[in-house]
Amino acid sequence: MEVQFYGHVRQYLNHKDEFDKAIQDVLMGGVYTLGPNVSKFEEELQAYTGMKYAVTLNSGTDALWFALLGWGIGKGDEVITCSNSFFASAEAIWLTGATPVLCDCRPDTKNIDVSKLEALITKKTKAIIPVHLYGQPAEMPKVKEIADKYGLKVLEDCAQAFGAKGDTFKLGDLSDAVATSFITAKNLGCWGDGGAMFTNDENLAAYVKKIRNHGSTKRSHHSIGYNSRLDEIQAAVLRIKLKYIDQYNDLRIARAAEYTQQLQGTSLKLPVAVAGYRHIYHLYVIETPKRDDLQAFLKSKGVIALTNYPIAIHQQEGYPWGTDSDPKPCAANCEQNAAECLSLPINPEITSEEVKYVCDCIKEWEAKQ
Ligand SMILES: Cc1ncc(COP(=O)(O)O)c(C=O)c1O
């Protein structure tokens, strides 16, 4: 049996008529950027998230970057995020000219370890970016408490957790802004690149809306900005996928429960979900010191498993260390996670039979150890 990591083509085929019609309508409508689908999608995102403003963009990186710029964060400032995230969580900080300060993750949930946050705060700290990694919300009440104590902004990186929520909070409740990515691999993903920033702050929303289009809100009137527009075809695709997002997330949760049940008793460290949180399992990440061996064995059995992420951000060759006095990361758990993590195939379209096959392969591998 072959088990793919993603179910993009299956998802397209499951709603083929709907997708084909939406794309045809865009093509026949003749407006391909900043048209009716982008406006309607932004309204629908506002309704779904309960946030006052949703500004669509070309990527999740831009959503993070632009929110920081909107708060005037730049050279001489520090922003804290975690080192086991995708590189862009820190890259967006670098792009403003500020310095990323990398915090460790919890050894269980892999989200930012809030107990280590305060020690990293200095006079230069301006914001915290908690990442809802793998689909599980970070401990937002504690992040908010610390941010309020030091007067810091909070920007949630929700690129992996659209539709997730905590026990007492939804995403956006305990922060100043939320950034998300719609790149294809994400749980709410289009067929190319996309992203959005959500906020209840009218000024921030207006700023981001302006700089996404060359600093312009009125034709031929400009100030310095960027080109970061979501196109109409992607918006049309996302409007359809947004209708199904809760259903898609429920399917991920159901398949994750099957993995967890069938892998109990193996030597693998399984994902830990906080009680009461809606972890939407954008990724189902296990850990084993023999990660590379297991990944190769699964591949030989036709199963594609990936690594998210095999190199911690501060260990990347391209990590732009500045001076010797740059803040050094506290990230021992992130380094271990990078060495041992393995993402098993999960998506709304994967079948229970496929999950069972993956688990059987893992058990076969275990028997050989
Ligand atoms: C946690 C996280 N933050 C930010 C990003 C950046 O999003 P994009 O690739 O749309 O720029 C991604 C994914 O790519 C991500 O997983």
State the gist of this model:
The chain is of the alpha/beta class and 369 residues long. Helices cover 39% and strands 11% of the residues. The model has no long low-confidence stretch (mean pLDDT 96).
Can you tag this structure with a few keywords?
369 residues, alpha/beta, Aspartate Aminotransferase, domain 2, Aspartate Aminotransferase, domain 1, 9 strands, 11% strand, binds pyridoxal-5'-phosphate
The CATH class assignment of the largest domain is: Alpha Beta
Biggest β-sheet: strands ordered side by side in the sheet: 1-7-6-5-4-2-3
CATH superfamily of the largest domain: Type I PLP-dependent aspartate aminotransferase-like (Major domain)
Q: What is the N-to-C order of secondary-structure elements (H for helix, E for strand)?
A: HHHEHEHEEHEEEHHEHHEH
CATH topology label of the largest domain? Aspartate Aminotransferase, domain 2
- Specify the overall morphology: globular
Stretches where pLDDT is under 50 for at least 5 consecutive residues are none
Average the pLDDT over all residues and give the rounded result.
Answer: 96
The CATH architecture name of the largest domain reads: 3-Layer(aba) Sandwich
State the helical fraction: 25-40%
Backbone structural class: alpha/beta
* Cα Rg: 21 Å
Strand content: 5-15%
Number of beta-strand segments = 9
Could you explain how this protein is built, in words?
The chain folds into 2 domains: 226 residues, Type I PLP-dependent aspartate aminotransferase-like (Major domain) (Aspartate Aminotransferase, domain 2, 3-Layer(aba) Sandwich); 123 residues, Aspartate Aminotransferase, domain 1, CATH 3.90.1150.10. It has 369 residues and is an alpha/beta fold. Helix 5 links the parallel strand 2 and strand 3. The longest helix is centred in the C-terminal third of the chain and has 32 residues. The strands form 2 sheets. Strands 1-7-6-5-4-2-3 form a 7-stranded mixed sheet, sandwiched between helices. The chain has a two-stranded antiparallel ribbon with strand order 8-9. The mean pLDDT is 96. The site of pyridoxal-5'-phosphate has 15 residues, from helix 4 and helix 5.
